[in-house]
Amino acid sequence: MTTVSMEPVGVLVERGGNATDPPLNSLEDTAATFTIGTILSIMCLIGVSGNIYTLVVMCHSMRSAASMYIYIINLALADLLYLLTIPFVVCTHFLKGWYFGDAGCRILISMDFLTMHASIFTLTIMSTERYFAVLKPLDTVKRSKSYRKAIALLVWVASLILTLPMIVRIQLMAVGTKPMCQSTLSPLSYKIYISFLFCTSIVAPGLIIGYLYIQLARTYWISQTETFKQTKKLPNQKVLYLIFTIVLLFWACFLPFWIWQLLGQFHPSLPLSTKAKRNINYLTTCLTYSNSCINPFLYTLLTKNYKEYLRKNKRLWTTGNYFNRRSRFQRSPRRSPSASSQQCTESFMLTHTASLRAHNSSL
């Protein structure tokens, strides 16, 4: 049975060094292990605290029925689950082996890909909703909270299905004198699987989100001219920018991880020393965990701006309803309700300001 050596924390393929490389139990390696352990522990404390706080606040805020809160809960939950693997990772780095059993192998290693896909799928859905909120605001408003909860659940189901091969084909085996997590997939099958996960977590979402934001940028560029003429003020799109910032942060933190993994699959004989490989492993590990550590601060900014939009939107709609009621008393009695309704709908769709209000209310 052909196996591929595995480690948790995104360090999937362990490649050997040259005979001239220093031993792994040297003083330098001990210092590096202590440093990475300290950094990861600090990330764990900050990230877990931040994401728990986010979950508590969002669960309380969900009473006000907002789609953005549902998706932020999804993101915070994925970040929290990923950060909870850090204590096991730190122990593995210090002990130079895996001592958490076969079930630990399956859970911890698969958790990387499960939470990674859950995060990027949720971000893709958030970007898609922003897109439709601008182009089809009435359709977006009609979507219920139950609909968005079902979408959030579907995200986790899809992520779990993509991770199943990693869960099923991982076993705990002895490598020399140390127990290590091993994939029982053949090298070719493993290469295909890793390449497929790269496409589902980076390439496909990247193309979708890139297209959506290009179209949104084009729409806003066209609409800003009319809006500026009317209000002498450019429209504020902080929520849109913050979502895009979260997406960019995800790519910045996970793309180096994927490049390193794909290099290990397609160029296994890289002329790198064991020290260089170890440092790259440590760097990509810290980057992936830093994403989950930073996100809670962005979520706070996102919800803060969202609440501001809700308050502005409420004032605008209250004022709009007052003038609409006055205008109805001044209308001709020969105008039918259906014609009035159609006129209001057309006005809503053609007026950019109203479109933006519907955009904000669908968050």
From TrEMBL:
<feature type="transmembrane region" description="Helical">
    <location>
        <begin position="239"/>
        <end position="260"/>
    </location>
</feature>
<dbReference type="InterPro" id="IPR000276">
    <property type="entry name" value="GPCR_Rhodpsn"/>
</dbReference>
<comment type="similarity">
    <text>Belongs to the G-protein coupled receptor 1 family.</text>
</comment>
<keyword id="KW-1133">Transmembrane helix</keyword>
<comment type="function">
    <text>High affinity receptor for urotensin-2 and urotensin-2B. The activity of this receptor is mediated by a G-protein that activate a phosphatidylinositol-calcium second messenger system.</text>
</comment>
<keyword id="KW-1015">Disulfide bond</keyword>
<feature type="transmembrane region" description="Helical">
    <location>
        <begin position="107"/>
        <end position="129"/>
    </location>
</feature>
<dbReference type="GO" id="GO:0005886">
    <property type="term" value="C:plasma membrane"/>
</dbReference>
<keyword id="KW-0812">Transmembrane</keyword>
<dbReference type="GO" id="GO:0097746">
    <property type="term" value="P:blood vessel diameter maintenance"/>
</dbReference>
<keyword id="KW-0325">Glycoprotein</keyword>
<feature type="transmembrane region" description="Helical">
    <location>
        <begin position="192"/>
        <end position="214"/>
    </location>
</feature>
<dbReference type="InterPro" id="IPR017452">
    <property type="entry name" value="GPCR_Rhodpsn_7TM"/>
</dbReference>
<dbReference type="Pfam" id="PF00001">
    <property type="entry name" value="7tm_1"/>
</dbReference>
<dbReference type="InterPro" id="IPR000670">
    <property type="entry name" value="Urot_II_rcpt"/>
</dbReference>
<feature type="transmembrane region" description="Helical">
    <location>
        <begin position="31"/>
        <end position="56"/>
    </location>
</feature>
<feature type="domain" description="G-protein coupled receptors family 1 profile">
    <location>
        <begin position="50"/>
        <end position="299"/>
    </location>
</feature>
<keyword id="KW-1003">Cell membrane</keyword>
<dbReference type="GO" id="GO:0007218">
    <property type="term" value="P:neuropeptide signaling pathway"/>
</dbReference>
<feature type="transmembrane region" description="Helical">
    <location>
        <begin position="68"/>
        <end position="95"/>
    </location>
</feature>
<protein>
    <recommendedName>
        <fullName>Urotensin-2 receptor</fullName>
    </recommendedName>
</protein>
<feature type="transmembrane region" description="Helical">
    <location>
        <begin position="280"/>
        <end position="302"/>
    </location>
</feature>
<dbReference type="GO" id="GO:0008217">
    <property type="term" value="P:regulation of blood pressure"/>
</dbReference>
<keyword id="KW-0297">G-protein coupled receptor</keyword>
<keyword id="KW-0472">Membrane</keyword>
<keyword id="KW-0675">Receptor</keyword>
<feature type="transmembrane region" description="Helical">
    <location>
        <begin position="150"/>
        <end position="172"/>
    </location>
</feature>
<dbReference type="GO" id="GO:0001604">
    <property type="term" value="F:urotensin II receptor activity"/>
</dbReference>
<keyword id="KW-0807">Transducer</keyword>
